[in-house]
């Protein structure tokens, strides 16, 4: 009753209110709870763990578990973590593991995330009830592990930095997650890895994911893939998502092949990806993989997707697509690239939009529209049924205010040398470090000492001077109105932001808005389409 007097009637007996750190040491403020039956007999089944962001203040880690082992059960099966309404929870890492059913809810009137866009909002960051600002070099912003047969629901959260923004069930356990829903999210500026990394790429045992639904969210400037979705076992439905500048670490990727917009791994059942905008990516926009882990038969349907201004090709059919999945591609749009392929890296330009290796599954392509920037649609049409291919002039996506006036593929993490995986870097005991090349107008992301954006003023070959030390770069900031420092109308006397506005809503009359591709804010509360 005392808690209800302070907070309101939404507090129920058996809930938990978190308003102070559990540990303060060496400058770290942590919230770490080990939910063991003897210590927490009053924690009810389906409890809400209320986090008071105002009283708590910024903390290093928020962790809810039983033990350090990811799948050690609690004495309850389900719980929800929710911010006290209208408070903002800020941490460097968020971990929840050991439940069977988990929900994270960061929505409230003062922090609606993408559910509302107040006229007073200029910058998207800080608009969600939960904001995790991770470490650039290691660890994930959000780490969630549920037990076999479990469910996950996440909404109203922001992830900034971290190796990846969101990591779900990546361990060595043979389990099936029955359903996952992720919506109303903003993941941006990861340090090394993916925006969302769900499941695992290692050898079995591993998790299979059923009924995965990702919708109405934004991913911006992920170091590697924006979405890496593993071992989908039916019921996946990914839609109304905008990806802006994936694979910004492509020049020095932490592992070969980590420069794809979306990894789409289908194991069984019917799985859909549609109405997604992939604007700017590394070598490949979408890489479909097959997997026998959940039966190896079923259907994948990819439709109404724009692949815009990647650095190489649109889709590459991996040689693992051989386990009996019928791959259907319909109403796809390919725009660009134009002379932005990996010509400095020694790779040969792929002169097609859809490539393949030695794959044997059934492939059907229809209603494929491209702008003619490549001479052919398919690398090899053997075993592919296709119809209605046409060339058409396609306009660029236009956002309310992304903060950038360059093509998204020109935004990339600064590094002095190309990764050793590229042909130009000879693989021998000595090794050859090949300097990266920068063109006037490129946007370099500084990741050492600060996370900041720099514009290249003059075409040059990199030396060891970082952008902040090199007069050939100028730092970019944005004023309180979201105007960039090199644009007309910039107010130098106002407060400055090192981060862009990221208002990635498509403008009303944009062609892609009319087609319903990408994030559609007015549809966030509508029934699934």
Mean pLDDT: 94
| Helicity, as a percent range | under 10%
**How many DSSP E strands?**
37
Task: Characterize the largest beta sheet: strand count, sense, and whether it forms a barrel.
Answer: 27 strands, mixed
Any low-confidence stretches, pLDDT <50, length ≥5? none
Number of helices: 3
Report the β-strand fraction as a percent range.
Answer: 35-45%
Shape designation: globular
Structural class category: mainly beta
Distance between the amino and carboxyl termini: 43 Å
Radius of gyration, in Å, reads 23 Å
Report what the structure shows.
It is a single chain. The protein has 529 residues and is an all-beta fold. It has 3 helices and 37 strands. The chain has a 27-stranded mixed β-sheet that branches. Strands 31-33-34-36 form a 4-stranded mixed β-sheet, with no helix packed on it. A two-stranded parallel ribbon has the order 13-16. A hairpin with a 2-residue loop joins strand 2 and strand 3 (28-34). The radius of gyration is 23 Å and the shape is globular. The protein starts with a helix and ends in a 15-residue tail after the last helix. The mean pLDDT is 94.
